[in-house]
Amino acid sequence: IARVETPQGSKNADGSPMLNRWSSILTKDHDFPGAQAMLYAAGVPDKRAMKNDPQVGIASVWWEGNPCNMHLHDLGKEVKKAVEKEAMIGWQFNTVGVSDAITMGNEGMRFSLQTRELIADSIESVTCAQHHDACIAIPGCDKNMPGCIMAFARHNRPSIMIYGGSIMPGHSTSLGKPINVTSCFESHGAYIYDTLSNPNNPDQTKDQILTEIEEHACPGPGACGGMFTANTMATAIEAMGLSLPGSSSTPATSPAKMRECARAAQAIKVCMAQAITPRRLLTRAAFENAMVMMMALGGSTNGVLHLLAMANTAELQPPLTLDDFQRVSNKIPFIADLAPSGRHLMADLHAVGGNPAVMKLLLAAGLLDGSILTVTGKSLADNLAAFPPLPPDQAIIRPLANPIKPSGHIEVLRGNIAPAGAVAKITGKEGMAFTGRALVFDKEAALDAALNAGAIPRGENIVIVVRYEGPKGGPGMPEQLKASAALMGAKLTNVALITDGRYSGASHGFIVGHVCPEAAVGGPIALVRDGDTITIDAAAHTLDAVNVSEEDMRARRKEWKAPRPVVTRGVLAKYARLVGDASTGALTDRFDF
Ligand code: FES
């Protein structure tokens, strides 16, 4: 049902576009008097509105207790006001969500990725069940954005995404510099290895310093401010035309974010009148633009997983694959000095023109497709014409002719550990290849314990393998952020990390995730042993246990036993049963791969 575009024709009797094509199933006659009674009770003012006004769902991923999401209900109220001004009926509702920063480092992290599915399930359910004619979604934290777009692709009714915006930087007097949430993780590594100190105040204890950093890293509402997963996804989605121009780089607390809420009401009306449905926007060219922005700005590897999920939910043909990311990464220069690998935050980029200015640059160079349709009803190029270019004196985005790295940072690796692929984020700072001795941990908790005990050896190249952390094995493919940031903070520079789990956009260093097939289904990462020699070669796109022959692998496989599921009841047990491979996006509603 969700995919039927026009249940009763898209025109009114007078030939005008029928904007209430879905809600009119309930409201046009007296077939559903109980439904109309309920709608009057909920706020439909009169018979004229009941019969004529389109009904727009306003889905915020709001909850208290997380800066990324705490303000989204208020943004939703602005949207509702604007929707009503445009002679439409707005229905606010919420989905669940969790904070990627708050859930990490404990069992809670397993719940993070599966909330992407819950968000998609919630929005699809409410939109279809309540007969909404359109949907405006307001996400904040990492999984929110792909969850919303997957919902759009499922119900395929006119839709717009308003990104909640990113947070402003904090400031630490102890460190004497701007800080953000990543500073907490890195300082934690220094805290463990007793290297956290204040050069201007030797009497300040490491506990006092870490507390001061924790108190000031997140100064108000907004998602993590670097080019981490939330900003990566918001940026990609704006480049695909599913949010209004500027949405992805406008900070959460900017007055411009409120103005965007007002503009979204006019835009959704355009989408409804012109039948601009999500699947018309989720085209190959749009995904190409998303990947270009991701590479140019150094986006999170989670973007690979989420874009695959969005494309496969929209049943894109030909399907988006890991090889598409490698192809785009090979040709797009990495030009952004943005955290985590660089110095600046999204708020800084906004101050010099934001993502519209970056897109203008890429468009002028022929790297973006400006002809794609967007939610404004205009092309991407037409939208960008209204924005100024980057100023010549800015220092965040490098000229294309003088990039940080001539190609993108995403490397898709394959080899005897990852025959179905793995994803590395390599900026080149760390070199292009790393060989080391395998140190294997089943589950991140075991690595955490080793880190806390200071038990990772220094002085030799080590490849830490963290496994049974994939979509099924985790379950939930938890991010290994704490471990990877702690490695950085502890200055364990001769250590690489490979995992069948994820790692956050906040991670940096020589790290490979999304190893497929995952250990829990018998992927060869389950067969790696302590002492194997592992080579990660980004130039050759390989990930191999180089001293383990095919014969050795076969012998080890015979000894391997599938582990018992970690979770047997509740939402994670359902998730583990349904979820597919990371190389196709870890979806729970497609079983045909
Ligand atoms: Fe929400 Fe980082 S924890 S975006």
UniProtKB/TrEMBL annotation:
The keyword Iron-sulfur applies. It catalyses: (2R,3R)-2,3-dihydroxy-3-methylpentanoate = (S)-3-methyl-2-oxopentanoate + H2O; (2R)-2,3-dihydroxy-3-methylbutanoate = 3-methyl-2-oxobutanoate + H2O. Pathway: Amino-acid biosynthesis; L-valine biosynthesis; L-valine from pyruvate: step 3/4; Amino-acid biosynthesis; L-isoleucine biosynthesis; L-isoleucine from 2-oxobutanoate: step 3/4. Residues 396-586 form the Dihydroxy-acid/6-phosphogluconate dehydratase C-terminal domain. Its cofactor is Mg(2+); [2Fe-2S] cluster. GO terms for biological process: isoleucine biosynthetic process; L-valine biosynthetic process. It comes from the Eukaryota. One of its GO terms (cellular component) is mitochondrion. It is an enzyme of class 4 (lyase). Belongs to the IlvD/Edd family. This is dihydroxy-acid dehydratase.
